[in-house]
Design goal:
CATH topology of the largest domain: Heat Shock Protein 90
CATH architecture of the largest domain: 2-Layer Sandwich
Number of strands: 23
Distance between the termini: 111 Å
Largest sheet: 6 strands, antiparallel
CATH class of the largest domain: Alpha Beta
CATH superfamily of the largest domain: Histidine kinase-like ATPase, C-terminal domain
């Protein structure tokens, strides 16, 4: 048999064996990968179930809390007025059940007993000591939520305590269905069949209490009992009603951590099996084609090398031309000797080539070493620069996880590098809670859409100091255009922000002075003339004259205008302060002791929360005492009877803060805006400073003062003073 045929047969067998092995390994690998992908996908559905339970629980408890905080609802429950509660809440329950799937809306009294069920108005009065969420809400006086069974079945329930005038009067409960409507949401989200299964008495069969399948299901597989017993997750590949499914079975626990049922996630495998069959056929076809081509190529190569030996020898000698030929010790004859000589020549040429390649490799290694050392030195210089720059320099992954941050973060934010690198959500969580609704969407746009992020927001240090930082981040994209990393830096702009606020208040005071100067100029001349004539007319009239009383009124009103003019001139009169290092807390205690009678007269109480480690500040004690008395008079005038004024001091970044809080007041936005304007305040006591002059005193101390509304019925007078004085800006 010719050599080319023998080679072809041998290589055909090897190609057949190799192709079959590769195809089989490919099919096994594909099946395993698909199984792992299905398991991961089903695990994702399981996590989505937990997330939806958590989300609906938080939703339910937030709704319950909103009703618990309603004073009318709290009063009705305290009075056990069932009809009033139905009036207040039944329409809201119908709306929430129709649009959001709320299935339970209950009020409970203490001890735990159902008072009103909005979903079953005529069923009430049953004992609820078996309801742990209600017991915990009453015991802890805080909101609880979780899966729990009631008279209407299992539900995702949120319970909030109801307080009336500080006393616990009962609880309010709102719950979502933990049944088919809840499972339909999962199916709509992920196109997966979900069932909730409960065991029979022997735990050998499991029947659905809720399912997204068209008909109720029943499972007899021992794996379900094993999952219930071992409290773990199991993946099954099975057919249900002739349809192949990948099934994940897990337990579900109620609020007390007890296993109440199994949850089954079933994902169709029809499309997956179709893809597997397609690729199996494709792999077999490609393998067979490769085998045929390999055999054909081997046949041609064998024929090529067995027939034109003379051409191969000439080709080999051409490669080795110009070199000395070293004879082999063996002396074959015929064409084999020629082939041996040609191979010897090729060997010499190959050795020469290897020598040259070796020399090139040595030189290449040396060059690579030099370039690597230069690159390392460049990286060290860059790292030294980044670590010593007075900025927080960071790098994030596209997921928001911090992968690099320099040491300056410890100086600026007081947080160790290790904690920042270990906290995946540090970039977002460091934002002050009040700024998050504005800043977080901008951060999400940067991570998800690749937009440049640049914003100023507040950050709280662990020691309680509040900083204002400028955060500037630029995304870096991969080859597919997705955000791969985000590089950015943080700058402390607290001093600049404080300076801006001081400049703004300076301009406000300047405007106030200009208004007062113009007002005094316009009033002075006509007021002097009118006052002089009015007094002359009054002196000329006899006691019995009918016009004397009218002229007296004119003289009185002119006198009021003259007092206003005197106040205006007082605002315009420059004054100096004589600061000395003082304790703000001690001044507050002294002034509050003096003003105790004023607050008692108005039935207003005081609550003081003074920081023990408040730094000393430079103050003009006399002017500042008068200023504090003015502030307390003003707040006492707007505080309703029976309420209290909260006085709080705390340290800041190079400043100390003083907050005076009033609750329950009804002051318009216009009154807040013009609180420090002349002739607009409710304060009419001549023995204390006017509010505009008080604001000027704060400005002279290089501080800031403002009246803001935090909530609809909560006003805060915010004041900040620096630790040290700087030259005042004009």
């Amino acid at each position: 048999m010719p050599l080319r045929y023998r080679l072809s047969i041998a290589f055909f067998c090897l190609a057949l064996l190799g192709t079959s092995s590769l195809v089989e390994l490919g099919i096994i690998s594909q099946r395993e990968i698909i199984r792992e992908e299905e398991q991961e996908r089903l695990q994702g559905y399981s996590r989505a179930l937990d997330h939806n339970i958590e989300l609906q629980g938080q939703w339910a408890v937030s709704l319950a809390s909103s009703f618990a905080l309603n004073p009318e609802v709290a009063g009705a429950l305290a009075n056990q007025d069932r009809y009033r509660l139905v009036q207040l809440c039944y329409s809201a329950f119908i709306f929430m059940r129709r649009h959001y799937g709320i299935m339970q809306f209950n009020f409970h009294t203490i001890p735990p007993r159902n008072f009103v069920r909005m979903q079953m108005l005529y069923v009430f009065g049953d004992d609820l000591h078996y309801r742990q969420t209600i017991l915990d809400a009453i015991s802890w006086r805080k909101e609880t939520f979780g899966i729990e069974k009631g008279i209407t079945g299992y539900g995702i329930r949120g319970v909030a305590p109801v307080l009336n005038k500080g006393a616990l009067t009962g609880t309010v409960e709102i719950g979502f269905s933990f049944g088919k409507p809840f499972l339909q949401q999962i199916k709509k989200q992920f196109d997966v069949e979900v069932s909730i299964l409960v065991p029979d008495e022997n735990s050998t069969a499991f029947t659905s209490i809720a399912t997204t399948f068209p008909d109720p299901v029943k499972r007899f597989d021992p794996v379900y009992a094993k999952v219930l017993l071992d409290q773990h997750t199991e993946l099954l590949i099975q057919e249900i009603a002739g349809v192949p499914y990948a099934t994940l079975v897990r337990t579900v626990k109620d609020y007390q951590g007890k296993t109440i049922a199994l949850v089954e996630f079933c994902a169709r495998r029809t499309e997956t099996l179709s893809v597997m069959h397609h690729y199996r056929t494709l792999m077999l076809g490609i393998g067979f084609l490769g085998m045929v081509l390999s055999v054909g190529a081997i046949y041609l190569i064998a024929r090529y090398f067995s027939k034109p030996i003379g051409e191969m020898v000439d080709f080999a000698r051409d490669i080795a031309s110009g070199q000395d030929v070293r004879h082999l010790k063996a002396s074959p004859t015929g064409e084999l000797k020629i082939l041996a000589d040609a191979l010897e020549d090729m060997l010499k040429s190959l050795e020469e080539s290897r020598r040259k390649i070796k020399d090139y490799t040595v030189n290449l290694e040396y060059m690579v070493h030099l370039r690597t050392r230069a690159l390392r030195e460049s990286e060290e210089k860059y790292r030294t620069l980044v670590e010593n720059v007075p900025l927080v320099v960071y790098r994030l992954l596209g997921s928001g996880k911090t992968i690099f941050i320099n040491q300056f973060v410890e100086d600026l934010l007081g947080v160790p590098q290790e904690r920042v690198l270990g906290d995946e959500s540090f970039w977002r969580e460091k934002v002050w809670p009040e700024d998050r609704p504005i800043i977080w969407p901008l951060m999400d746009h940067c991570l998800n859409e690749g937009r440049e992020f640049k914003a100023e927001y507040r950050v709280a240090r662990p020691d309680g100091k509040l900083l204002i930082v400028l955060d500037h981040a630029l995304p870096v994209f991969d080859e597919r255009g997705h955000v791969e990393t985000v590089d950015g830096f943080l700058v402390n702009v607290t001093e600049r922000h404080h300076l801006q606020q001081q400049i703004i208040q300076t301009e406000e005071l300047k405007t106030l002075s200009e208004i007062s100067a113009r007002l005094a100029h316009e009033i002075r001349n006509p007021l002097v003339a009118a006052g002089g004539f009015a007094r002359r007319v009054l002196d000329a009239l006899t006691e019995g004259d009918v016009n004397r009383e009218k002229v007296k009124i004119i003289v009185h009103e002119i006198g009021r205008l003259e007092k206003i003019l005197e106040k205006t001139l007082a605002y315009l009169k420059p004054f100096q302060i004589l600061p000395e290092t003082s304790s703000l807390n001690e001044l507050l205690i002294q002034v509050l002791e003096d003003q105790e009678a004023v607050f008692r007269e108005r039935s207003v109480s005081l609550e003081m929360n003074l920081s023990a480690n408040l730094p000393l500040v430079p103050l003009d004690k006399e002017l500042f005492r008068a200023l504090l008395r003015t502030m307390f008079y003003a707040l006492a005038d707007i505080c309703p009877q029976g309420r209290k004024v909260e006085v709080t001091t705390y340290p800041g970044d190079n400043v100390v803060h003083l907050d005076m809080t009033v609750r329950g007041t009804r002051v318009s936005d216009d009154e807040i805006e013009h609180f420090f304007y002349p002739f607009t305040s409710r304060l009419e006591r001549t023995e204390v400073l006017d509010l505009p002059l008080a604001k000027m005193i704060i400005h002279k101390h290089q501080g800031l003062i403002d009246l803001v509304r935090e909530d609809p019925d909560r006003l805060i007078l915010k004041m900040s003073l620096p630790h040290r004085r700087e030259p005042i800006l004009s």
